[in-house]
């Protein structure tokens, strides 16, 4: 409840026409962004608990139950023992996600808020290589690795190792439900393994840019 | 230097030898669909009287008509079974990805604009503009908070005879989720991922303002120019437009119905969560 109240309060402040249209002074706009980010982050705890309960109805949140965590330090608190972390990556719009860039195995869970089945082409920032994506029925999903555009790679405040996005189709997303995919970075063969061992060398451009990626 | 085409089983889009999107082909029928970026220079006034207002946080007031950003666009083409993309570079501060997913009936435009250069002391308001051959007769449609579509007519007001002093901004309207136009054959809709200003300043064309950077306050109270920065440089904005193009007489679902479903998907999107699975194998996870 305290987390939801942080978001309620932020949304209360944002009813002001300034917050909607951007006619406030810059430092006020920055403060609005700060309030919203903190509030949405605080509610990340709520979504984690709910998703863990949906995933595993027997799940009971351990750790400090019932204590209203001060949302201000929701980052600081060691999150109680969750079966699944269900982290959010807020910078997917500039192809940045620390978890998917650094882990060789991870899951992607999509929660469909609509009242009818949905689908989505998922884009996950990765440092390159080959990936296997499986759904919960052990069905392997076809994937494609797409280079991140130069103009995004060159953004002066993007701190990421990702050079490509792993793209795959998540379909049959149940209404008001979720579906998870297991993503594994594949080490195919010995030379891949050797390649893995070495830090990834930026590929030498073969021909001009367009032929390289055709 | 050659024409480039990407697409899927429903549609193909082609780019001309200068790198601009030029046509869309659906069901074997090719129609004109050109897209480019232009910008308006922000008017600079002393704000004393109405006619001397500057363009600013409260006001969109261009100084003259649009400026083009380039004559040629650099392309990089990526083709695969799941998605086909064209990465366009218009100049140092405008780029875009045009993509067609294998099983989608629309075209996605992911634009990236900024930092908008102002070394010349001129504020700039950047617009993405789509051109088609539709004979729209000055009529276009903009949504009201994602619901009702309101009929707009260029240089016209329903309830009084207007004498427009601002020929461009006087035809701009708030577009929360969609702007569209049609004639008896064609309909084109552009869905946006955030509220933007938009218009149709010539028959068959639609435009949406994606980013703006202004250097003078417009004297409506904020007493600050709309000149947002990040890390000491002008703000960079990134967003998406989705284009639904089709014959007006399509069988069900009608183009409008397809737009509505897409609008729901894009504006009430799936929530993505990521979990580290540590050393678990797939079987253990399953």
Give a description of the structure:
The complex is a heterodimer of chains A (214) and B (286). By secondary structure, chain A is an alpha+beta fold. Chain A is 32% helix and 23% strand. In chain A, strands 1-7-3-4 form a 4-stranded antiparallel β-sheet, with no helix packed on it. A 3-stranded antiparallel β-sheet of chain A has the order 2-6-5. In chain A, strand 3 (130-135) and strand 4 form a beta hairpin. The longest helix of chain A has 30 residues, at 26-55. Residues 63-79 and 190-214 of chain A have low confidence and may be disordered. Chain B is built from 2 helices and 21 strands. Chain B has helices at 255-267, 282-285; strands spanning 4-7, 11-15, 21-26, 29-41, 67-68, 74-79, 83-91, 94-101, 107-113, 124-132, 139-143, 149-153, 173-175, 178-182, 186-192, 196-199, 205-213, 229-230, 233-234, 237-247, 271-276. Classes of the chains: A alpha+beta (214), B mainly beta (286). Strand 1 (105-112) of chain A pairs antiparallel with strand 21 of chain B.
Morphology of chain A: globular
Structural class based on helices, strands and sheet pairing of chain A = alpha+beta
| SSE string of chain B | EEEEEEEEEEEEEEEEEEEEHEH
How would you classify the quaternary structure? heterodimer
Strand order of the largest sheet of chain A: 1-7-3-4
Count of DSSP strands of chain B: 21
Q: What distinguishing features does this structure have?
A:
heterodimer, A: 214 residues, alpha+beta, four-stranded antiparallel beta sheet, three-stranded antiparallel beta sheet, 7 helices, disordered C terminus, B: 286 residues, mainly beta, nine-stranded antiparallel beta sheet, globular
